[in-house]
């Protein structure tokens, strides 16, 4: 399973890229707004750090403006994946843009049929938001399992990108189900790396080594 980092913070992206564990980046207007930087400038900075898919989201609900923004984004770099919302206009734009060779990440997916429709419209990635489903007492991971079953049944090539992950268990379950990608906030990535028993064990090893000197 590929791991993407879900942030627009350049320092965080560099930190985890140096560990060799990040395959791509997902961003959105909210994440970039937090950084207080120009949208295009930050994406270009990210592209210099990560040689993999970078998802860049449109900032409009208007169909023609979606097409215009997406076509512009696609000129920035071959690794750009344009994020479109799972709406009627988003689907229509996905069909047209994917036929033009522009890679689409259909976002804000909350049920299996939305995922299937996005795949039929030509999306390269579909992004189910599992944490937001958990927030309203639905089982987000069950949605991933159902999408996975449908895609396997019909040999659909669209990749499942598990989004809105909130804790390490989400990542474990996504990997067990067989999702293609999980995008992970930096604070969750940190939890994947660390375990208290690892720290205790390392401290003991170092203490014993110093005693042997």
- What's the tally of helices? 11
Helix content: 40-55%
Q: Per CATH, which architecture?
A: Alpha-Beta Barrel
Mean pLDDT: 96
Instruction: Look up the CATH topology.
Output: TIM Barrel
Quick one: biggest sheet? 8 strands, parallel, barrel
The rounded Rg comes to: 19 Å
End-to-end span in angstroms?
Answer: 43 Å
Q: What is the name of the CATH class?
A: Alpha Beta
The CATH homology group name: Aldolase class I
Strand content: 15-25%
User: Helix/strand-derived class?
Assistant: alpha/beta
Total beta-strand segments: 8
**Number of discrete domains:** 1
TL;DR of this structure?
It is built from eleven helices and eight strands. It is an alpha/beta fold.
Question: Any overview of this molecule?
Answer:
- This protein has 213 residues and is α/β, with parallel strands linked by helices.
- The protein has a single domain (2-212), classed as Alpha-Beta Barrel (TIM Barrel).
- 54% of the residues lie in helices and 17% in strands.
- It has helices at 10-18, 29-35, 39-49, 63-74, 88-99, 112-120, 130-135, 140-153, 168-177, 186-193, 196-212, and strands spanning 2-6, 24-26, 54-57, 80-85, 104-109, 125-128, 159-162, 181-184.
- It has an 8-stranded parallel beta barrel, surrounded by 7 helices.
- Strand 3 (54-57), helix 4 and strand 4 (80-85) form a beta-alpha-beta unit.
- Helix 1 runs parallel beside helix 3, helix 6 (112-120) packs across helix 8 and helix 8 (140-153) packs parallel to helix 9 (168-177).
- The radius of gyration is 19 Å and the shape is globular.
């Amino acid at each position: 399973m590929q791991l993407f980092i879900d942030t627009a913070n350049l320092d965080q992206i560099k930190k985890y890229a140096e560990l060799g564990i990040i395959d791509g980046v997902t961003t959105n207007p909210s994440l970039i707004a937090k950084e207080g930087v120009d949208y295009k400038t930050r994406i270009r900075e990210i592209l210099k750090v990560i040689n993999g898919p970078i998802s860049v989201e449109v900032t409009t609900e208007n169909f023609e403006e979606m097409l215009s923004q997406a076509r512009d984004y696609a000129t920035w770099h071959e690794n750009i994946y344009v994020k479109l919302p799972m709406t009627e206009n988003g689907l229509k734009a996905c069909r047209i843009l994917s036929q033009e060779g522009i890679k689409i990440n259909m976002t804000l997916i909350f049920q299996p049929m939305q995922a299937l429709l996005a795949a039929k419209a030509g999306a390269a990635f579909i992004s189910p938001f599992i944490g937001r489903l958990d927030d309203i007492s639905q089982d987000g991971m069950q949605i991933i399992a159902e999408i996975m079953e449908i895609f396997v049944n019909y040999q659909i090539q669209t990749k499942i990108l598990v989004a809105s992950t909130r804790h390490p268990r989400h990542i474990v379950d996504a990997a067990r189900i067989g999702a293609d990608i999980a995008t992970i906030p930096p604070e969750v990535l940190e939890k994947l790396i660390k375990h208290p028993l690892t720290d205790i064990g390392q401290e003991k090893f170092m203490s014993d080594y110093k005693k042997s000197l």
